[in-house]
Amino acid sequence: IGGGFFTAAIREALEGGLGDLDLDGDVQVSELRDYLSTRVPEMTRSSEYPNGQVPSVVAFDPDQDFVILGK
User: Fold this and answer.
1) Alpha helices, DSSP H, located in 1-71
2) How many other CB atoms are found less than 10 A from the CB of residue 16?
3) Residue-wise pLDDT tens for the chain (71 aa)?
4) Cβ proximity of 1 and 8 under 8 Å
5) Distance CA 35, CA 31 (A)
6) Within 13 A of 3's CA, how many CA atoms are on the CB side?
7) Sign of the Cα pseudo-torsion (7, 43, 18, 54, in order)
């Protein structure tokens, strides 16, 4: 993978554009959080850990959201 699963998922989200969940050309903090909350458990799921690893996310108010990667 070249790092951990969390790092790989961030790279997918930002470099691969998969983090742009609303397809507006920007990746916002909330979109990255939502992508990682789904993707990391998918990547780490196994017979030993059927739910996978779930990253901890910090809650924030909608007015605190901002663009991480823009058009």
Assistant:
1) 5-15, 29-44
2) 9
3) 567 899 999 999 999 999 999 999 999 999 999 999 999 999 999 888 888 888 887 777 888 899 999 87
4) yes
5) 6
6) 8
7) negative
Q: Which residues pair with 28 in a beta bridge?
A: 67
What is the C-alpha separation between 61 and 70, in angstroms, rounded? Answer: 21
Contact predicate 19/32, CB 8 Å = yes
Extract long-range pairs of 31-35: CB within 8 Å, 24+ residues apart. Answer: 32/68, 33/57, 35/9
Length of the chain: 71
Bridge partners, 27 (sequence order): 69
d(CA 35, CA 53): 14
> Could you give phi then psi for residue 50, rounded to 5 degrees?
-65, -25
Residue with tokens 């790279």, as numbered in its chain: 11
